[in-house]
Specification:
The protein is of the alpha+beta class. It has 3 helices and 11 strands. It has a single domain, classed as Protein of unknown function DUF952 (ADP-ribosylation fold), CATH 3.20.170. The chain starts with 5 loop residues before the first strand and ends in a 5-residue tail after the last strand. InterPro entries: DUF952.
Length: 128
């Protein structure tokens, strides 16, 4: 997105909080353009591991049937950009080659785990 501050980071993995419907679509078709927010902004919203729990708390409270997808950053190439959300937090966004808003490919997903909700906290093995 023009005008947003960007940084280069080298993380091995980034994470996608996915609805069951999106995860099913991804497995069936081999790719996904994400949800309404992703389609509106022209990028797939991702998180670094330490950003997953706050993102779940801020945007997914009360939702069920969520999955956490571990994404291999090498498979996303230069379509993965880290952008400032609030001046200090840089979140990974996947635009695709030349910022063409490409779908997230299934072959970039290295693990998928169903998130469980207990006492208001989401958890799965990837978060432990």
């Amino acid at each position: 997105m023009a005008g947003k501050e960007e940084v280069r980071e080298s993380q091995e993995f980034v994470y996608r909080i996915s609805t069951a419907k999106e995860w099913e679509e991804l497995q069936k078709s081999g790719s996904t353009f994400g949800g309404d927010l992703d389609k509106t902004t022209g990028c797939i919203h991702l998180s670094k591991l330490d950003q997953v729990k706050p993102t779940l708390k801020n945007f997914f409270t009360g939702m069920e049937n969520l999955y956490l997808l571990q994404i291999d950053t090498k498979k996303l190439g230069d379509g993965l950009v880290y952008e400032a959300a609030d001046g200090s937090n840089f979140f990974p966004h996947f635009y695709g080659p030349s910022r063409s808003f490409s779908p997230l490919p299934l072959n970039a997903v290295t693990k998928a785990e169903k998130l469980t909700l207990s006492d208001g906290q989401f958890s799965c093995d990837l978060l432990n």
